[in-house]
Hints:
Layout: H1 9-25, E1 98-103, H2 108-118, E2 129-134, H3 140-153, E3 158-164, H4 167-171, E4 176-179, H5 191-212, E5 218-221, H6 226-235, E6 245-247, H7 250-264, E7 271-272, E8 275-277, E9 285-287, E10 292-293, E11 303-304, H8 305-309, H9 312-324, H10 326-334, H11 340-355, E12 363-368, E13 380-388, E14 391-394, H12 402-426
Parallel strand pairs: 1-2, 1-4, 2-3, 4-5, 5-6
Antiparallel strand pairs: 7-10, 8-9, 10-11, 12-13, 13-14
Helix pairs in contact: 2-11, 5-6, 5-12, 6-12, 7-9
Amino acid sequence: QDLSGSMSSQAQSRIQKIAGHLLAASPAAGGSCPVSRDSCPVSRASGSPAAGARGGCPCPASGSCSRGEPACPYVADSVKAWPLINSNPHVVSTAAPLRVVITGAAGQIAYSLIFMIAKGEMFGPHQPVVLHLLDIPKMVDSLKGVIMELQDCALPLVRGVVATDNLKEAFLNANVILMVGAFPRGPGMERKDLLAKNVAIFKEQGAAIEQFASRDVKVLVVGNPANTNCLAAMSMAPSIPKRNFSALTRLDHNRALAQIALKVGVPVQRVHNVVIWGNHSNTQFPDLTHAHISHYPQTGITTPASSAIGDDKWVKSTFIPDVQQRGAAVIKARKLSSAASAATAVVGHVRSWLLGTRSGEVVSMAVSSDGSYGVPEGLIYSFPVTCKDGNYTIVQGLSVDEFGKGMMGTTAKELLEERTMAFELLGLKL
């Protein structure tokens, strides 16, 4: 306003500009960002890391913001995205939808996950979806309420919803399958009993993937024991490339990032490149050896996480066990397992896999071992990876000290034992 209290023409023009952007660029309107690009303090209007550093923004095209601001997670990098992902805001209405299967769709994790996908958080704001919701017969009626809620959200990216207990109907022509459902571990249940229950489930679903899904389907296994459940499903779908299967360790990865951020006292988006090695169990190895903190202790400086923490005792006696046992701690406090955090991790895992990781960014994915770092081939083992074009690449050449090698060997041993039990149950030879 000027001194007389009237709004200046410059202010009026700016308000109209922002309002016009919000109308044209919101997800509901098929636009590119759920917030005004002008909100970025480094001039998101002229170029953000997510938008490709157009105009006067000093950020590199695929790097991190020079002021430590996170890149917009909603915008796909068309240079790195899986070819099936549409990143063009002008063809949303005619873009082919992805058929996305969610198993255990009536469960807690799925309830959070379904709406994240429907809003474009997983595949970006320009990619339509058809949701295939699979659960056991007695849960299908409850999915009708989920469908009603999806309808009531009036989300433009949702082209259709299928709720079923039929494997053919669920997996037919599926592009992405999120295997969330699994048999939970009950009181006093032995690991072999749990494996027997779940191997039967994933054997059947893996065979259905082989028979009905798209040949380039991407499969993420979330239900525990996730690594070995993934191995069971993959073993039953021999015509699908092994590299199209993965298991979730992004939740552990996120937990590790958060614990480092809390210890050092920085925003979590400034912590980068922790690694989760091995099994999604309490034998996993959360490794901060190669992690770093950007803009710490001041803007423009990058500091290794281990140096910023400066306490090896804390790393070994607090950080590692806290990440390993975080799931149990959540259950103890909440009386329920992780749901929203697990759904967030699923979204992050698939978004990195199919939309690509930013330059210099490393994430953790449990994938079929190719022998890297001495891990036996064929195990579903969590590695540091980068992603482009819908494919992952295991990061090579990271140094691992004797302590780390011991941790990695322990979790590999557990996975080998699980694989032996699973293959016996599947009737397969090693």
